[in-house]
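Final report, results section. Input specification for complex C-07:
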Amino acid sequence: MKNLLLAALATATLFIAGCGNSSSTSDSGGAPNPISKDNGKPIRVGIVFDTGGRGDKSFNDSAWAGLERAQKELGVEPKTVESKSEKDYETNLATLAESGCDLVIAVGINMQTALKAVAPKFPEVKFATVDGDVPGDNVRSLQFKEAEGSFLAGYLAGSVSKSGKIGFVGGQEIPLIKRFECGYIAGAKTANPNVVVLPAKYANSWNNADLAKAAANVLYSDGADIIYHAAGASGLGVIGAAAEQKKFAIGVDSDQDYIQPGFVLTSMIKRVDEAVFQTVSDIKNNAFTGGVKVFDLKANGVGLSEMKHTKDKIPADVLAKVEQVKADIIAGKIQVPSKQEELDPYLAALPK
Amino acid sequence: MDSLFLVLKSTVTLSAPLLLAAMAGYTSERTGVINIALEGKMLAGCLAAGLVGILSGSAVLGVLAGVTAAVLMSLLHWLLTQSYSIDHIVSGMAVNAVSFGATSFLYKNYTDPSKVTETPTLPLPAYYAIAFVVPVALAWVSSRTRFGLRLRAVGGDPEKSRSMGLNPGAVRFKSLLLTGLFCGLSGTLIVSNTGYFTDGMTAGRGFIALAALIIGSWRPIPTMIACIAFGFLEALQLQLQGTRLAGAEIPRELWNVLPYLATVIALAGFVGKSRAPAGLGKP
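Structure output:
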């Protein structure tokens, strides 16, 4: 009896995991008019989501949006796999490569090691990594200049802050998040050298919104009126605190303006969808190249949201200045610092 | 002065979910059921409260759903450990696994990913009041009422209480109902504080609550103090991050680990010997 129940429980667990597409592939419906690459065979694109999975309102969803667009506009055939744990990455990537995909996309920097192991085994298959850096002729590494987008967010915050104090809440103090922080500080100080960027708070967690909310409350009570977050799902706490305190938050990764309309000043969008779409379209046009491909302001890889709910609260000349700064960065007139060692000399060189 | 007030306020918000979870652990472990499944039960509560709250638009229905989901998970745990005598740790892990997979799956499939809908919530102070009253009430119940004494008797020595005519399975059924209730409230509070369900949003707090229970030597009031201390240290470290001491910046990581460091030190026995219920894990 005991064994029977254990078996039943194990089956139940497997069943639920199976429903979540744990390690089973699923064809997401054929494209209406598959355009052939050669001899009538549609292009097949596999995508492996990281443990955040679809529905994270951020990264993975953005990658999926890019592939969906490619499905509609380019007629490719998508195959998706979600990863229940980090152990699944390698198997999932290999499974898709074996199943005859022309391109396999690995979403998230955490899949980097797995892709390094899998890519050389399938030289005829093309791979792409979002955020990772993987060498190889058949691998394209899609990287983003988060610092440039954050610079614009900081510039806007520095321009519209009434209290003259702004803040930042991060998920973990790692180089990736430092890029957001450094760009933000540089942008704010460029807009207004007198603005005070309060010492950043790190929640040290990507899914503890309560902690991030408490951290945001500390910054708001210290006088900040705008807080930028780069803390994944924890960041929802920052946005929640902004709405409670009637202050501003700045969203990240995808357009988060709509989460608390009117209390999210803008969102620094990382266009993972754009990067994915461009890569798929290169495959279709036989223009795929390996190596690093950087998505910066110029390539429309990062940028600010439309500010649907806040645009009328921001003076027109500030918006115009933000556009000007964007043009300056694209033209190379402003070199945006992306780590502490670059930030310090940048700030020292600013006119007082 | 302002910042002191804020630290105290954050202490309340950060320790309240821990308090409820730790008391859920208390009712379960005091009757001898080892409970590493607090996390999973809380998460089930988060999901049900979030999902039903959004779909029905009613905060009250959300709370009821959150509590019901956690109670059901808790009764599953009871069934596994009592009716089928499965090892408590193994069954606890099973409950956690089911909860993690199911919550993620259900949320993605039954909410519209293209829009964020805020969960309707009851006023948060109501939860805080409950969280701080429950440990005191449990301390009274466990020493002054027939139910409380039976609860402790079964956990202390199930065999002897059985020979005295008690049915440990029945007592544990009631105590695990309470465990479900408190886990459900804790989960509902967590989802109410931000208004949105996200994957794994309990963020390990079910395990921190378990640590607090051990530090508190499986007694309500000391456990309560341990939870408040943890919440206070979290609030304090958030306040102090980035401040300078004698001109030098203290590494942020040091502040981050402060509450956990304190937990490890306390668990290592520096706050006195912790005595587990003797019947823990016994049939």
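Chain B touches chain A through 45 residues (CB under 8 Å). DSSP finds eleven helices and two strands in chain B. This concludes the modelling results for the funded period.
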